[in-house]
Amino acid sequence: MKQFKDIYDQYSWDEVQASIQTKTAKDVESALAATHRTLEDFKALISSAASPYLEQMAQLSHQLTQKRFGKTIQLFAPIYLSNECNNICTYCGFSFDNKIKRKTLTAAEILQEINVIKQHGFNHILLVTGESIHTVHVDYFLKAFEIIKPHFANISIEVQPLSQDEYAQLQRAGLYSVLVYQETYHKEKYRNYHLKGKKSNFYYRLETPDRIGLAGMHKIGLGVLLGLEDWRTDSFFCALHLDYLQKTYWQTKYSLSFPRIRPAEGVDISNYHISDKELVQLICAYRLMNEELEISISTRETEIFRNNIMKLGTTTMSAGSKTNPGGYSVDEDSLEQFEISDDRSSAEVAAMITANGYEPVWKDWDKIF
Ligand code: SF4
For residues 321 and 128, is the Cβ–Cβ distance under 8 A? Predict the structure, then answer.
């Protein structure tokens, strides 16, 4: 069976980049006028030629999002279960070569974290770990699910890539969605950022969403770590990946996240900066390509940016997040994976959503009916 790797290998990074750079105002206008938009239209919409059309893109994105999702924003909280990691990734505070205190939550500590998060009203939870397969493995996740499931309607994970069988096993145990970001689709440069460990295998990571799709997962989340490489070219490859997955695993839902590199212990700040305006352009371009896509904005972004982007395509937001294991209750001062920009509480974020005429949604009834 054909997989995304076969499609990816037909493309050249440099050619895609050049093709985005040569898009013109006419290409952008034609993309805006189209009723069904293609990947070529997407290239035009993320190109610098589209920047004078941002207002129009934002209005369209707002309308399309409201038509499909209503005036709602889904809220979730991440729980960092472990910061142990065997990999060296140059942009991450949990990287193996960072001499930080390592911690993996015990069953009792997970319960302690859950109790605090439940008090904040959350019903959707994202479990995050580093990649330490000897301590944080499928059995660990299964035990964590047993503790977590009675308390939450919806469990997602953002952990090391697993096998198809392991994803299927976790799904049977109650897992709803898996987030796996390629970080960058630039195969050669990928090696410069992933120096040691399993994550340094570019293709194994690239093939992960196929394994998740084959396992029949309800939802897959993709993304690029914005700031590692040219965001336009990386985003084209991510859109290509999404397009392939939607056609291949058409019963699965998809979400997209837009992490921008944030300061963390031992991290060099971005070589390929993406400005706030460009990030808005990118989010709107995805929405114009895809009306069904869930678009998630995390607390990496500032309060002002999140308040403004909320109506322009966003469907999902984290709130009151802690990015360190035990951060809600057990070990509040342990080292974060990255610095949070929006440190408002979940109640404050919910109040902002309501004040904007939207409804904060704590539970996705979709899954139940
Ligand atoms: S990005 Fe993930 S795999 Fe890489 S060092 Fe950080 S936690 Fe480990």
Answer: no
